[in-house]
Amino acid sequence: MSEAIGEMILPGTYIEVRAEGLIGVGGISTGNIGVVGTANRGPVDTVVILGSYSEALDTFGSYDKWSDAAGATPLTLTRTLEQIFKGGGSTVYAVRVADGTPKAATWKVQDSANPAVTIVLLTATSAGTWANAITATFDSAATPPTLTLALGKSKEQYTIDAGSDADDLAAAINDGSRLVTASVTAGSGAKVPAAVVTGDAGAQDGAAATKTQLASGLALLATEEVNIVVAGGFSAKDAGATMLAHLEATENDGRERIGVIGASADALATIAGEVSSNARMVLVAPGILADDAAQSGSNKQVKLPAAYAAALVAGRMSTLAPHISLTNKDVAADGLRTYYTRAQQKQLLNNHVLVLFKNLGLRVLKGITTDDAAFKQISVRRIVDYAKKGVRIGSNPYIGRLNNARVRAALKATLDGFLSSMILDEMLIAYQLDVSATRSQEINGIALVTMTLQPTFSIDFVKVIMTLS
Q1: What global pTM score does this model have?
Q2: Taking 70 as the threshold, does the pLDDT of residue 43 lie above it?
């Protein structure tokens, strides 16, 4: 932005500073993960940014006991978040979706003079069955009388001092409670409570969410700074087309990202053809073994489908710079649901499936997308997306400036600096860049940026030739 020159009327020296040469490209996010799934707690159809698994538990509650029986619909969001953070994810944009309208649990605080009258209604902070575990008790014999709310190890207490009424109690609860909100139902000045009774139980977690709810959740992530997308609990068979539609729409809007999704089964015949060739889609197999915190007893290990392996892979991908390949990288799974033979691994790779296998731990066999053309390697897809984002950031400050040779040269210098840094970071081997405009383009406000990029490819094979003598 140039510094304006005042009116040149009085004698003196007038200086105009043109700062185009100082424009650079700032930081670019590469590991933000977006996830959609079902939960028994937390806001519905709202994007929540999480930085740890403990935050996920506080926001969306614990997952339910795992069941893979026919017709079972276990909750998916928190379990998916567990695998994402286990894989190394650090910044996650999470959306809770639900089939139907979840219902919040309530409790009724009764009037001491007339127990049939509810003077304060307590409502769980979010809808779902999580709040059914909250106990609400009122000790009228205590000095002063005390209302206690408890959930697990969390306990909240609110005292009723002499002269206080329902308004005071509701205000204290709304100021300090993480479990419920309070509303006065019998008007200001109502008497202090004598007891608390259960109202309606929380219900309708919406665990049976379909691809319709998935699409609505993905739409909420469309404008967020997300680089990797996971469909919690959904397989490629059920949600592959929905995910592809989202990836195409966000690419058209200049918000490029990669979708990671699990195969619907471990059998090779089932996996083949579940997702059409696409440079932004990663299909993961097989499923994984994981401890289930909701299980009782000493053996808590369960077999999770590949949708959760996809979450683990997405978390691992988020820890890597764009040019670092997932090939041969370890993943923090407890085990695999299926261990493929080399012949089966070869068949899966030919079908463009990212395969997990056992070799000095559990690893990614080859970091590939479902693309069968230029963007087979995930790292190449991420490098090009990184370059596009950087060029977009570097070019944006020039929009609205003069379309002349001087400003276009400054734009070229900005982009040169960014692309040169990609060479230093070993994302590119070389590039060619030109910024130009014909007279017609100048008149129409167009500056044409032409780039040829040579991304760095990873080593997938090492060929050893031995000469014995």
Answers
A1: 0.91
A2: yes
